[in-house]
Amino acid sequence: MENIVSFLIPDAISPLNAILLVAASFVTSFITASVGIGGGATMIALMSYFVPPVALIPVHGAVQFGSNGGRTFVLRDHVDWIRIAAFSAGAVIGAAIGAAIAVRLQNDVILIGLGLFIIASTWIPLRRMAAIQTIGFAVIGTITTFVGMFFGATGPINAALLSNSFSDRKILVGSLAALMSAQHGFKVLGFAIAGFAFAPWLILIALMIASGFAGTLVGSKLLYAMPEKGFRLALKIMLTLLACGMIYRGLASL
After folding, report:
1. Distance between CA 43 and CA 27 in Å, rounded?
2. Which of 119, 160, 178, 182 is most solvent-facing, going by the fewest CB within 10 Å?
3. Quick one: CA dihedral 44, 45, 50, 52, positive or negative?
4. CA-CA distance, 7 to 19, in Å (whole number)?
5. In contact, 216 and 78? CB cutoff 8 Å
6. What is the pTM of this model?
7. CA–CA separation, 122 vs 117, rounded Å?
8. What is the four-CA torsion angle of 136, 149, 214, 28, rounded to 10 degrees?
9. The dihedral of CA 190, 67, 119, 51: what is its sign?
10. How do residues 182-210 score in pLDDT, each as one tens digit?
11. Is 219:29 a contact under the CB 8 Å cutoff?
12. So what's the pLDDT on residue 128?
């Protein structure tokens, strides 16, 4: 039995924490599907309490790559592939530069920076930009992928910067899923090249992706049934508390 458990679960976390992570993937995907945003940031904040900081961004990126990849496949006929290609070209550059730096960061720096980033992205309103041309997608792909190598949850930033570039709602949803899938995919590749060992985490990542897909199915059915304003405020407060805990743990280990 112990051999089976050690095969399914990385040595860095306990079986109970692994179960909690799978459950958290369901809940955070439910949040994203039901209110549109917040799931990715909530997921990485929760993961910080169970996953070692050195593995936090890579494992979160792999889970998000699977989640966004599934949504991209479903909406593949509504994806603006030309702009996604431009974004992906920039993402390659951002991932390559960021990976070389991110793997050298100390654990306390990762926790403090990630906590501050979550608080800022939760409470500071991001103004939606005007429609951006194809070359702009490459630039944004470079910048946000670079930032994502350190802080993980850049979905709200990409949405704020690029949403007005898509006139149709289905194209918007499908294209955002595709570009986030590309971004997380290149992040995973960058960390793998930089030396992060994904192998021990693969089964847990697969379980979290499957659980997240189930959460998406359930959450999408409640999309219009939830009191969105109150839920979003509660979500912001929860994210802030989680982020403050991350900052405290980072400062305590300095």
Report:
1. 9
2. 160
3. positive
4. 15
5. no
6. 0.81
7. 8
8. -100
9. negative
10. 999 999 999 998 888 898 999 999 999 99
11. yes
12. 66
